[in-house]
TrEMBL record:
InterPro entries linked to this entry: Aldolase_TIM, Class_II_FBP_aldolase, FBA_II
Membrane spanning residue stretches: none
Protein name per Swiss-Prot or TrEMBL: Class II fructose-bisphosphate aldolase family protein
Pfam families attached to this UniProt entry: F_bP_aldolase
Names of required cofactors: Zn(2+)
Source organism, top-level taxon: Bacteria
Length: 282
């Protein structure tokens, strides 16, 4: 069934679990997330990024309708989340399109401008029952920019700043920079576990880990055990998808029916989804 992101995150936090959120690009991604959630017996978040909306021509209606239908038809509890939204116009489109939550990403702005823009997004969202996540301290690596050095001091979220940020914006969840980086295709990121604990103690809202594709299993389990609640995974699905397509097409040089290679691609993503979901209960 289709549920709200807020209820999934609250339930996970109360039981000391994590809830994984997976990025949807194609219909097969949404189907694989539902199948993986059913296989693992766990809920999940279907998230569509601003970049994915741009890929689909800039209008989120069709992709949101497809993800909603997949969620409704599934026996797993699935929610719909709009991810990394920088455009206020897209933020406002989230409500009619049926999203229960949005990550409003003003992390490229200065601290003061980030607080101002995010507080405005929260006022808008809360008036419509929409749960709002925001980011402080850049995770990096998004949109082709060079991933920031995972150990560079500048890419960590400061706990004292996080505390005033959450108080000043009223956000429902906080995405933090603790050592992960977006778009990693190997799983070598090292998390700053002392910082995760300090951030958990500093803010009253659940923490969100972005760029989880590059974080090893053990590190994810440890982060969840320390109170990291929403775990965002994107690239790992694409690594599985594209790897399966490449293997199939290398072995079948004359194939033209896309279903021939989309079947193994979707199955590979399903396996990846189920794998990450099993890390949510440390
Ligand atoms: O918001 C989405 C996530 O942060 C995904 O990051 O593609 O590196 O797993 P990833
Ligand atoms: Zn992200």
């Amino acid at each position: 069934p289709l549920v709200s992101t807020g209820e999934l995150v609250t339930a996970a936090r109360e039981s000391g679990h994590g809830v994984a959120a997976f990025n949807v690009i194609t219909l097969e991604h949404a189907e694989a997330i539902a199948a993986g959630a059913e296989r693992a017996g766990a809920p999940a978040v279907l998230q569509i990024s601003e970049n994915a909306v741009k890929f689909h021509g800039g209008d989120l209606t069709a992709v949101a309708a497809a993800a909603t239908a997949v969620a409704r038809a599934s026996s797993a509890s699935l929610s719909l989340h709009l991810d990394h939204v920088e455009s206020v116009e897209l933020l406002r489109a989230a409500h009619p399109a049926g999203f229960s939550s949005v990550m409003f990403d003003a992390s490229k702005l200065t601290y003061g401008d980030n607080v101002k823009a995010t507080a405005e997004a929260v006022r808008w969202g809360h008036a419509r029952g929409i749960w709002i996540e925001a980011e402080l301290g850049r995770v990096g690596g998004k949109g082709g920019e060079a991933p920031l050095d995972a150990h560079a001091p500048g890419v960590r979220t400061d706990p004292a700043e996080a505390q005033s940020y959450v108080a000043g914006t009223g956000v429902d969840a906080l995405a933090v920079a603790v050592g992960s980086s977006h778009a990693m295709t190997d799983r070598t990121a090292a998390l700053d576990h002392a910082l995760i604990t300090a951030l958990r103690d500093a803010v009253p809202v659940p923490l969100v880990l972005h760029g989880s594709s590059g974080v090893p299993d053990g590190e994810i389990r440890r982060a969840v055990a320390a109170g990291m609640v929403k775990i965002n995974v994107g690239t790992a699905l694409n690594t599985a998808f594209t790897g399966a397509v490449r293997t199939y097409l290398d072995a079948h040089r004359t194939t033209v029916d896309p279903r021939k290679y989309l079947v193994p691609a979707r199955e590979a993503m399903t396996g990846t989804v189920a794998h990450f979901l099993r890390l949510m209960r440390p």
